[in-house]
Amino acid sequence: MGAEKKWLFTLFSAAMLSLIFILHLSMSAITSPGDGFPTPIFRGPHYPPTFAYYISGGPGSKDQIFRLFLAVYHPRNRYLLHLRREASDDERRALAAAVVAVPAVRNFRNADVVGKPNRINFMGASNMAETLRAAAILLKVDSGWDWFITLSASDYPLVTQDDLTHVFSSVRRGLNFIDHTSDLGWKELSFFSFREYFLNILLIFCHGWLKLFSNVCREERIQPIVVDPALYLARRSQIFQATKKRPTPDGFKIFTGSSWVTLSRKFLEYCILGWENLPRTLLMYFNNVMLSEEGYFHTVICNSPEFMNTTVNTDLRFMIWGKPPTMDPLFLNLSNFNQMAQSGAAFARQFHRDDPVLNLIDREILNRRPWQVSPGAWCTGRDSWWNDPCNQWGDVNVFRPGPLARRLGETISHLMEDVKLQVNQCKIKIKR
């Protein structure tokens, strides 16, 4: 009987512990705000800024997009996630289900997934068209944000959203963070075929005609006429180049730069709603330019008297380029962590899926656990291994910046000095 009593006592103890654990989880669910009752969000010039994120990726990048979404999530922001047309509908539905499963998203309703994406050619104008479409959607569903940020599935943040919001609270809301130059440089090479590319590289090394080659590149950048069938065909089709060329435009100056931008809401309203003809004129021109996403916003903003002095010449990204530079930056890994953390950049690119350095960023910078959003001052739940602190929240209008906010703040302050002196703002490179 003694052995039987011990067995019954053990069974009873296990049952009681299970019951206590279930009650704890139930109470945690009850004490968090219910669906449809979000805490109030205050916006405007006297409150912290908000960001509209456009996060895009191709087939197979659902998990990357969702991980990035969790890493940059904050209830005050707005999010639009985009899986390209080549991704399956099942993958798209799975991404939408994962987003809705986040408790804060169910309450604040601040994230959407594009349901019917268009065809995209990275080298053509359809990529630019999809970015403009995303900005138009974000303006329609929520026009209260201050900056529009473009990210790809292979990007990752180097600061928390509390850090970013704290630093941008001291930035004039109308400024646009866009890497730009009128010197088209090595990016012209993308307009050559691979055969022409290697022939010209051979000419450079054999004859030292670098200056001549650079001038030829400029002409090849802006004179060819390319057509992107993805703009009007349902099936996938590659871009093609017309046999004739068009003269270099003299009605406006071409600018180029990084396709990753942080643009003000007012400038995007100008591009999309267009109270004058410049954005539409340049959109028609860049409709037949290769890599138009690396030139459209840059050329519009630097040819507009209203916005040309609102540029900050940076894309806020940490990237490492190969030597000689290629079309894309190198993939980052653990060996680059210290350099990234000390860079003062807001984001970094590009990363392989599930690279170990992402776990290190989560742990050392974002304080984020797998499948949880990055915690901030808005999260009030108990922080434990079985409980997500962001399943409960208090005032979402307060922020608690961390140590890396100082580095980002120093970077922004240095850039602001250039803005005050009007240095690197839409400056035209003089040919010598």
Automatic annotation (TrEMBL):
Its main localization is: membrane
Gene Ontology MF term list: glucuronosyltransferase activity
Q: Where in the cell is it found?
A: Membrane
Instruction: Report keywords, A-Z.
Output: Glycoprotein, Glycosyltransferase, Membrane, Transferase
Q: List the membrane topology term(s).
A: Single-pass type II membrane protein
What Pfam families does the record tag this protein with? Branch
Q: What's this protein's name?
A: Uncharacterized protein
A GO-annotated cellular component: membrane
